[in-house]
Recover the amino acids of this structure.
């Protein structure tokens, strides 16, 4: 049997996760992450919830940023797919706004409470020099 994915409504935990990234206030939004969670962001590999928080502070701290979820898909074996768009500007140049597409692939742990065991993020293309 082939694995399939189906469009679904965006769950509250995903919206809380996106808000946590935008506000860098991680409590409720990052609750599904653990010390065993792996984040792959482009070529970066970050392990554990505290390191993942620090990573987002580093890349998003200098920015005004909002993430909009455009599509959310549920697939077999705990795979969740998200397509969205980020709107961002350096805090030092708030009028220079850049938009970038992004994709998140969440791999959820089996059984028990909601836990993200792995997250893969791709972002861009974007004018990197405009925001970094």
């Amino acid at each position: 049997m082939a694995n399939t994915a189906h469009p679904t409504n965006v769950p509250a935990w995903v919206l809380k996760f996106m808000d946590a990234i935008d506000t860098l206030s991680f409590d409720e939004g990052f609750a599904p992450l653990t010390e065993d969670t792996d984040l792959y962001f482009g070529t970066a590999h970050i392990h554990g919830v505290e390191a993942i928080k620090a990573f987002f502070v580093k890349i998003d701290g200098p920015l005004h940023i909002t993430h909009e979820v455009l599509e959310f898909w549920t697939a077999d074996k705990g795979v969740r797919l998200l397509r969205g768009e980020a709107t961002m500007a350096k805090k030092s140049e708030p009028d220079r706004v850049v938009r970038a597409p992004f994709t998140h692939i969440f791999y959820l742990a089996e059984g028990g409470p909601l836990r993200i065991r792995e997250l893969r993020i791709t972002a861009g293309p974007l004018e990197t020099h405009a925001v970094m």
Summary: The radius of gyration is 15 Å.
